[in-house]
Amino acid sequence: MSGRDHTFHGDYGLSCADTSANPLVAMPMGNHNNRLSTFITCLTLASQIIESFCLSMYSDLIHLGGADKYVDEVLEIINSIKLLDDFSADEVRYLCAYMQCYAAPRDYSLLVEGTGGDYLLLILSGGVDVYKNDASAEGRHMVARLGIGDTIGEMSLIDGYPRSASCITTHPTDFAVFSRSSIQELLVNMPKLGNKILIKLLQLMTERLRDTSNRYPDGAFFSLV
C-alpha cells in the first residue's frame, strides 16, 4: 500500500427531508444515468475537499491517497475493524471515499495529548502505543497498545476537545483519517449511512468508557484520545 513490504497495501438508499437540496433525491427516478452521474460527482467533490483538509494535517508523511483506492485491502481486515463490523461491503466502499490514507514511520506521534483535533484515525497496518502525561521522571506512562483495525481520536472527533492522550507508532504504520468535515459531507450526501456511522462511533465510545471505568473503579479514569 505504501511502497513498503508489508501486506496491507446495491445502491445505498438516500434520504433527505428537503429534496430540493439534494439533487439525487430531487431528480426523476427514471433518469438513472443522470442520477448516477450526479452521485459520482458528489463523491468526487467530497473526496477532493477531504483530501485538501487532510493534506494540511500530515504534510510531513507519505500521502497514499484516498481509502477508496484500497477498499479490497480494507475488506480483508474488516473483521478486525470494530468501527465497520456492522457495515456491508458497499457501505464500506462508500465510507472509504471519505477517508485519506497516510504512511508513518516508527516512533511517529500521530496524536499529541493536549492538542486540538476533530478527526479520528483508523490503523490499517503497524501499531500504536497510547501514553498519558504524568509527573514521573519519564513524564508519561503507557496505558494501551493498539493495532490493526483499532481507531484512535473518536472523542475529539465528536466533542472537539483537546486530545486526552498521545499516540506513537511502534512500527511503520499505515492509517486512514476520518474527519468531522467528512461526516458532515457524508450526512449531506448519504444521510442514512452518515447516521449509521455516528451511532457506531457513540457505541464504541460508550464501550471504551465503560471498560476504562471498570479498570479504574475509584473514578480516576480517562478516555483514550
Structure description:
The model is unreliable at 3-7 and 9-27 (pLDDT under 50). Helix 2 packs antiparallel against helix 6 (180-189) and helix 6 (180-189) runs antiparallel to helix 7. Helix content is 37%, strand content 20%. The protein has 7 helices and 9 strands; from the N terminus they run ααβααββββββαββαα. A hairpin with a 6-residue loop joins strand 5 and strand 6. It has 225 residues and is an alpha+beta fold.
Uncertain stretches of 5 or more adjacent residues: 3-7, 9-27
Quaternary state of this entry equals single chain
The gyration radius over C-alpha positions equals 19 Å
Straight-line N-to-C gap: 26 Å
Fraction of helical residues: 25-40%
Q: What is the tally of beta strands? A: 9
Spatial order of the strands in the main sheet? 1-2-9-4-7
Largest sheet: 5 strands, antiparallel
